[in-house]
């Protein structure tokens, strides 16, 4: 029996574990994709202590520190959390049950899909949601990045180092990316911006060959590309929370109080999955919420 099971192995989960271990709480991290979203990010330039660090390197450091303080870390997927006696049972994908007195859910976010014809068909055949993982497959090729926010600008900047040509396609007049990223992509001669445009279909034989636009670009609604990187945001992974009847806000995030407690006693939540930190979903806020959640678990178990 653990004092605490942390679901999720991203910044919030690791930070929660580091703090929990230092409160002498026997804790286990169960993570589906180790490192969370950040292992797919490129350069991180806004986490204090590092001017610039690769996302996966930063996550490796978080993990090392959790292990140093003797966290148990396992790769797996929690599919259900059930109340049992004075605690909870976490059931994983293989049907294994693990008991804990308290739970912190740090399950983060997953990619949002476009939901257009051909998208699912060409996943892994030209369509990707992870430019860091798949970018190197498109060396000297033409690719499109769909989206106009920070992650899209970051993807375009990264891909321009590998690919022959990068189109960045977004719906609005102007990108919503922060000024520093806007400048970077605008000044990159390999990146062509296509604004006020939606991609409505993906086409090809075996592999993706072209995307269809709703607004002509250079007189054509067809754009020939070898790859399409979809960067249109994410949705919170709230399946487990919903099964437990935890209160969720209208936007789909877990409601937490200032101590990261959810509406179910003994269940806490931290990181991108919550409505906390004034909606600023970043490594620094995820780590901070993880630390607060662990401190709250300590107080909760003391009682
Ligand atoms: C491309 C990109 C670039 C980014 N750049 C920056 C940046 O420059 N600076 C910055 O501060 N932030 C950046 N972010 C945001 C940052 O990555 C997130 O804010 C942060 O990772 C949130 O941490 P988290 O722990 O809440 O969730 P996540 O990182 O999403 O981690 C969630 C964890 O939960 C696991 N999980 C989900 N469901 C289950 C389940 N059922 N069972 C077990 N495990 C589960 C996941 O596999 C993962 O391990 C970027 C994000 C992306 C995608």
């Amino acid at each position: 029996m653990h004092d605490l099971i942390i679901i999720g192995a991203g910044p919030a989960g690791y930070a929660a574990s580091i703090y929990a271990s230092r409160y002498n709480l026997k804790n286990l991290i169960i993570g589906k994709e180790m490192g969370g979203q950040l292992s797919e990010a490129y350069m991180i330039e806004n986490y204090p202590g590092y001017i610039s660090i690769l996302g996966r390197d930063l996550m490796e450091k978080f993990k090392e520190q959790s292990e140093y303080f003797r966290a148990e870390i396992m790769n797996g997927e929690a599919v259900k959390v059930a109340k049992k006696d004075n605690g909870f049972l976490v059931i994983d994908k293989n049907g294994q049950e693990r008991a804990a007195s308290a739970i912190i859910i740090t399950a983060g976010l997953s990619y949002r899909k476009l939901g257009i014809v051909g998208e699912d068909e060409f996943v892994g055949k030209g369509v990707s949601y992870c430019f860091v993982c798949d970018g190197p497959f498109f060396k000297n090729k033409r690719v499109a990045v769909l989206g106009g926010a920070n992650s899209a600008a970051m993807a375009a900047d990264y891909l321009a180092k590998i690919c022959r040509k990068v189109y960045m396609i977004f719906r609005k007049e102007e990108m919503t990316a922060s000024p520093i990223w806007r400048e970077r992509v605008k000044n990159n001669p390999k990146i062509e911006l296509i604004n006020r445009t939606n991609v409505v279909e993906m086409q090809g034989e075996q592999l993706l060959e072209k995307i269809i636009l709703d607004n002509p670009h250079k007189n054509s609604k067809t754009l020939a590309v070898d790859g399409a990187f979809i960067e249109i945001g994410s949705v919170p992974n709230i399946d487990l929370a919903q099964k437990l009847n935890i209160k969720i806000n209208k936007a789909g995030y877990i409601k937490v109080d200032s101590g990261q407690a959810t509406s179910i006693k003994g269940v806490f939540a931290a990181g991108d999955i919550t409505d906390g930190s004034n909606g600023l979903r970043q490594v620094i806020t995820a780590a901070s919420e993880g630390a607060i959640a662990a401190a709250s678990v300590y107080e909760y178990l003391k009682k």
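The mean pLDDT is 95. Residues 272 and 280 are 8 Å apart (CA to CA).
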